[in-house]
Amino acid sequence: KINAIITGVGGYVPDYVLNNEELSRMVDTTDEWITTRVGIKERRILTEEGLGTSYLARKAAKQLIQKTGVDPDSIDALIVTTTTPDYKFPSTASIVLGKLGLKNAFAFDFEAACCGFLYSLDVAAAMIQSGRYKKIIVIGADKMSSLVDYTDRQTCVLFGDGAGAVLVEASDDDGYGVQNSYLRTDGQGLPFLHMKAGGSVCPPSHFTVDHRLHYLYQEGRTVFRYAVTDMSDDVTKIMEKNNLKAEDVDWVVPHEANLRIIEAVTKRAGIPMEKVVVNIEHYGNTSAATIPLALWDHESNLKRGDNVIFTAFGAGFVHGASYYKW
Ligand code: ACO
User: Fold this and answer.
1) How does pLDDT run across 222-279, given as a tens digit for each residue?
2) Per the structure, how many domains does the chain have?
3) Interatomic CA distance for residues 72 and 124, integer angstroms
4) In what order do the strands lie in the sheet with 307-314?
């Protein structure tokens, strides 16, 4: 049996810190509202003109390559999961591959909104377990500031920019690495979370720009309800599937959208907050980057043999959980 193991984690967040105090001068909000309702104090924003998601992704991957010492020529595939690609085409992954100078890899983008990293880690693991590939870089990267309306207090307080990258390698270390997953797509989420224009249904035009249709739209309360119900269910299912009791779980690494969502999900699963990796306070919701950035922040606390549960929820709706033996 071939095992798919994460052998390194890299990360990158831009230098610019947008804190609640600055936001409260931009829109009608307060540090108190954001902190108590969402749990965010600050987020990082990529402010340099002309730089997009590929820049964040490349920085995270460069750090990963340096840290692990992996030979770039030995990488078989590069997956970038993002909702904020540099361009409609070519893929962001192809741009990142070019910048990194990977000579023997193929690259593709994978879009599953905030669930992108969870889904693509599973895809990478299956590719490795098939025996056809040995080393895959998976990058979760999003420049959410590129689709956030900074006049809309309901959404602009939530998001930040960043990227996290992992190296997934084939190993004969039985019992370690990606174990299995419970991934689902609901398909009913479109009305509640989307960007109205810019795609093939409503291509960009003066009308779409004038009507501010190029920003993220969400019905926050509905998304909140679905997120709590689905992620709780997913965590329970993955624990049942692997005969894990709450006390067997060492860490939950959830998608970071709202601290109250994370608290509600883990409470339902009977897992105390000391076992939950949370960094939303400093980075906000970085979409596909939240889970790898949380791993990056928390890597030194993870011990060999720890039982780790990943769980995420995003536009679509897409959601799920997976079980990883560190
Ligand atoms: N500052 C102050 N007041 C605000 C703000 C703000 N930034 N935003 C909203 N309010 C007000 C509202 O206008 C409302 O006022 P009203 O009662 O006078 O109408 C009041 O606060 C309560 O609004 P709610 O929407 O009920 O607030 P809620 O507690 O639900 O928090 C939030 C809103 C944070 C958006 C929450 O619903 C949430 O986290 N939803 C889930 C978001 C999410 O997970 N998105 C995930 C995926 S994103 C992706 O996939 C790319």
Assistant:
1) 999 999 999 999 999 999 999 999 999 999 999 999 999 999 999 999 999 999 999 9
2) 2
3) 17
4) 177-185, 318-325, 307-314, 251-254
Nearest-angstrom CA–CA distance, 145 and 227: 22
Our answer to whether residue 255 is catalytic in this structure is yes
How far is residue 75's CA from residue 127's CA, in Å, rounded to a whole number?
Answer: 13
58 and 165 share a domain?
A: yes
- 170 and 182 assigned to the same domain: no
**Dihedral sign, CA of 13, 17, 20, 26?**
negative
Shared-domain flag, residues 160 and 43: yes
Kindly give the number of the ligand 1 atom that is closest to the alpha carbon of 156: 7
| 27, 190, 195, 221, best to mutate for ligand 1 pocket (most atoms within 8 Å of CB) | 221
Q: Looking at the structure, do residues 163 and 183 belong to the same domain, yes or no?
A: no
200: tokens are 């093939």
In order, the DSSP letters of 180-209 are: EEEEEE-S--GGGEEE-SSSSSS---HHHH
Question: What's the domain range around 69?
Answer: 3-175
Tokens (6 digits) for 208: 């779409």
Q: Is 156 a catalytic residue?
A: no
ipTM associated with this complex: 0.94
**CA–CA distance from 80 to each of 12, 94, 123, 314 (Å)?**
14, 9, 12, 17
CB half-sphere exposure, 307, CA atoms < 13 A: 15
